[in-house]
Amino acid sequence: MTSSKDDFFNKVYDVVRQIPVGRVTSYGAIARFLGAPRSSRVVGYAMNSSHTQDDVPAQRVVNRNGVLTGKHHFPGTNLMQQLLENEGLDIIDDQVQNLDEVFWDPNIELER
DNA sequence: CAGATGACTGCGA
DNA sequence: ATCGCAGCCATCT
């Protein structure tokens, strides 16, 4: 099926699913991997619809700062932080620590 | 159809 | 170094 823009969402979900446990990535990295470095916001929008996908660990997707910008979109209040900490990550003040160590860039790991 | 919003990013002051 | 503004693209109202 020749998909259309829906394929973009699908690609986003696919990349997010490939994020290893204990790692995180940024919206811009995913957007860039999809060939749309300027569509970082659209990636976030796709995550907003990620609730339709059960296999999308959206908690592993943070902004370029390593801040859990989308944590407010999760049920509860600190669920996103708890999930990441459960994966072995250190979160302080809704911000991922050692971001350089846990950062997972699809453009590098997947070598585009 | 047009305007506003958003889980972002980069540049300028 | 910190704060603010503009750009970009898809969806929502």
From TrEMBL:
GO molecular function: methyltransferase activity
Single Gene Ontology BP annotation: methylation
Stored InterPro entries: ATL_DNA_repair (IPR052520), MethylDNA_cys_MeTrfase_DNA-bd (IPR014048), MethylDNA_cys_MeTrfase_DNAb (IPR036217), WH-like_DNA-bd_sf (IPR036388)
Keyword field contains Phosphoprotein: no
The name this protein goes by in its record: Methylated-DNA-[protein]-cysteine S-methyltransferase
UniProt keyword list: DNA damage, Methyltransferase, Transferase
